[in-house]
Predict the structure.
Amino acid sequence: MTRYPQETPTILVLKTNIADQACLHKIAPVLSGDKRILRWNVDQQDVDNVLRIECEELSYEDIFHMVLKAGLWCEELPD
């Protein structure tokens, strides 16, 4: 589901260990359940299993805690 914000969203890009469907099933309810997250996806074809999040008012630290709470791992990808 995509919501359209009134302001430009923040885009966060993270390296993760979300490498398979089981991991996606763990993280999907966490990310989809947060109303500040407008859109997210994981590129499992990429060696870094890149998680890309478009959000409002969230930081890398916020996402780190969400992913960790789901039993997974992530870190900020440098530009």
The mean pLDDT is 92. The first strand starts at residue 10 and ends at 16.
